[in-house]
Amino acid sequence: MAVKIIAENRKARHDYEILEKVEVGLQLQGSEVKSLREGRANLTDGHARFKDNEAWLISVHVSPYVNGGYANHDPLRPRKILMHRRELDRWMGKIKTKGLAVVPLKLYFNKRGFVKCELALARGKKLHDKRETLKRKVMDREAQAAIKSRRGG
Q: What is the C-alpha to C-alpha distance for residues 134 and 116, in angstroms, rounded to an integer?
């Protein structure tokens, strides 16, 4: 069984310079897991906060489960991030000193069927950095097209 991606935050790669990545677990309710199995999640505005030596995933929208009834969850509730203590302490220190952000890149089911989240330690890009990245992408695409046309394929 391969990894099943639930949601990806493509905008994060455009808005942030990714410095480090880590795979973490999430503390979820049953209706949230069922909703995620249907692929109903949005990471666009999501970020992580550290409070009382714990990490929380904020502003990640998980739609209510269709057949949830009265036992449904709040779509925007903060969800506890499950990560190792050493890693948590290290990331908390980096956030406080360097002014970095923690953003979710993707949400997926791993091989064992657990919901995992790929978090990134990131630094916000300035407008000129975003433009430079786009220019580099366009130049790479044109170069690949030129190589392909040369080969006759």
A: 30
Query: Token pair of 86, please?
Result: 């050493």
Whether residue 153 has pLDDT greater than 70: no
| Residue pLDDT, tens place only, 101-138 | 899 999 999 998 899 999 999 888 777 777 888 888 88
Domains of the chain, start order:
4-126 (2.40.280.10)
User: Which two tokens mark 110?
Assistant: 């791993």
Cα 126 to Cα 15, 46, 95: the distances in Å are 8, 19, 19
Interatomic CA distance for residues 63 and 72, integer angstroms: 10
| DSSP H or E run through 96 | helix 85-98
